[in-house]
Amino acid sequence: MPMALYQDDGYVVRFILGDLAEQEAAEWTSRVIWKLDIPCGEVLVSGVLTPDFQEEFATMAAAETNGSYWVGAYITVPPGAYQVEVYGYPPGDLSSGWGKITAPRVFGSHPGIQPEKPLEYWRRTRPDETPPIWMTDEFEEEGPYIDFVIRLSPLAGDMAEPALEEDGCLQWEFRKPAICPAGIRSTL
């Protein structure tokens, strides 16, 4: 499932079989959905797309809970056909979903998304809550936030062909949540 990311920074991924948590369902700003047949029971999550990618893939290890991997890892799942959903979250949504809300001059505008400065968005939708530190540009000692959630669910029938970008990557769907996202803390 090729997906273009806005930059080549590292990212934090949560991989789930099952339903999204309430915050995960409410706060995503971008997603792609497609199907994947996994007869071998292993899914590779990686940002590598170089001419020698097969050599790099051969060095990747099996993922462990709360593990950290330089270029990617394999995740073991029951063999089968799946619907795969990849969701992007602020503050580090590398698909640019958050950027389309908060910085459209840099990330481009999107139909149906009204741009808004992060603190204005927060105060409008969460007037009685303190904004997260990442939104105020202050130093934060706590750990990173989740950038992506990859959710697998059993494939239930045929799916329509996905929209593709000119380069063959899946086209991201963008949205502005009704309530400003707070960011989902990673357990790393």
Quick recap of the structure?
The protein is an alpha+beta fold. 18% of the residues lie in helices and 22% in strands.
Write the layout of secondary structure elements.
Elements (H helix, E strand, L loop, with lengths): L12 E5 L4 H6 L2 E9 L3 E5 L6 H6 L13 E5 L3 E9 L8 H6 L1 H4 L10 H8 L7 H4 L11 E7 L18 E2 L14
Parallel strand pairs: 1-6
Antiparallel strand pairs: 2-5, 2-7, 3-4, 5-6
Tags for this model:
188 residues; alpha+beta; five-stranded mixed β-sheet; two-stranded antiparallel ribbon; 6 helices; 18% helix; globular
What features would you describe in this structure?
By secondary structure, this protein is α+β, with helices and mostly antiparallel strands. The protein is built from 6 helices and 7 strands; from the N terminus they run E-H-E-E-H-E-E-H-H-H-H-E-E. It has a 5-stranded mixed beta sheet with strand order 1-6-5-2-7. A two-stranded antiparallel sheet has the order 3-4. The mean pLDDT is 87.
